[in-house]
Amino acid sequence: MAIAGIIPVAKGLAKIKQRSDVSCRLCKRTREQRGTSTENLPEETYGHINSAFCDGMATTVTAAHHFIWKHLYASMQVAQAPASKLRFVTPDKESSMSTLWQEEEFKQICSRKLLTEKAADIEKMIAVKEHERKPYDIDPAMFGENRFGNRRPDGIVINRNHQTLFILEFKRSSDRNENFQKIKEDEANKQHKSIIKSLKAAAQDWTIEQINFVAGKRGVIVEDDFYNKLEKLNVQAGKKDKILLAYVQRICEAHDKVMRSYYQQIHGSSGADATTSIENLKGQVYVQITHNLFVISC
Ligand SMILES: [Zn+2]
Q: What is the distance in A from the centroid of ligand 1 to the CA of 23?
């Protein structure tokens, strides 16, 4: 259904006149529970419920991101070519710039003080978002330092011998548009511009590079690009196919988990047949959708 573009979200149901209100039911419910305003709700589209912008789906979507990325990161690490001198830093948790630069290994790349100074110049040039306004108004200099300190790449890979540092970012993306890889990569590069520029300025002997992995939510991967990135990260040539297969499998499983969470929240907790078991949920949900489709196609 995701591939055919017929997931019965409110927007889709409205299109075929099965629903009049297109606003997101999950955002509405979450806001009601929080006691916040339900004015200006976002539209319940497939893209919306697959994003962290949906209040009802944010936790699941973030978990889906980690579920895929942790596995890929670990796979690349264990498949290193024997001569590789790459070190994959903190594969089990994301670390912020401020916590990383408390460690000796990072201080040897450049001092924390120099990095903070360079970052201050760069953070000044980056627009302050609306939700960041208050801390910025109180102390603009401190704001820049804190914002930089809180930046978290998804991974960092270091080759001390060659003085190379890779900043890794993983993104789940819509894969409807042919250019999805380029669009998400631009987004990821913009997100870490401050880290890359500050490091280049503070550690001038080092080569600093960002590598982005973009996974289409429905399992679309740009294969050549993926293989090139594995090669850059010294993954053994013979293990690339297996890694790609497992990666795509994981992406599809994550999509499945996200969709189940969505259906469970929309349909799972009401009525006498309500069930919270995933196994039962599958049957129940699919019957429900088939029924809807049947009615629609009539
Ligand atoms: Zn929502």
A: 8
> 51 C-alpha to center of ligand 1: Å?
8
Burial classification of residue 23, based on how many CB atoms lie within 10 Å of its CB (0-12 exposed, 13-18 middle, 19 or more buried): middle
Strands (E), the chain: 87-89, 155-159, 164-173, 207-216
| CA 128–ligand 1 middle distance (angstroms) | 25
Residues with CB under 5 A from ligand 1 (ion): 24, 26-27, 54
Map out the domains of the chain as residue ranges: 10-58+257-297, 61-253
Contact between 122 and 97 (Cβ < 8 Å): no
Decide: residue 59, CB within 10 A, 0-12 exposed, 13-18 middle, 19+ buried: exposed
Dist CA 102 CA 75 (whole Å): 27
pTM higher than 0.70: yes
Q: How would you write the pLDDT of the chain (298 residues) with one tens digit per residue?
A: 888 888 899 999 999 999 999 999 999 999 999 999 999 999 999 999 999 999 999 999 999 999 999 999 999 999 999 999 999 997 555 589 999 999 999 999 999 999 999 999 999 989 888 888 888 888 888 888 899 999 999 999 999 999 999 999 999 998 888 899 999 999 999 999 999 999 999 999 999 999 999 999 989 999 999 999 999 999 999 999 999 999 999 999 999 999 999 999 998 753 334 344 334 444 433 333 333 333 333 2
For residue 261, report the distance from its CA to the centre of ligand 1, in Å.
12
Using CA atoms, how far apart are residues 127 and 124, in angstroms rounded to an integer?
Answer: 8
Distance 84 CA to ligand 1 centre (A): 44
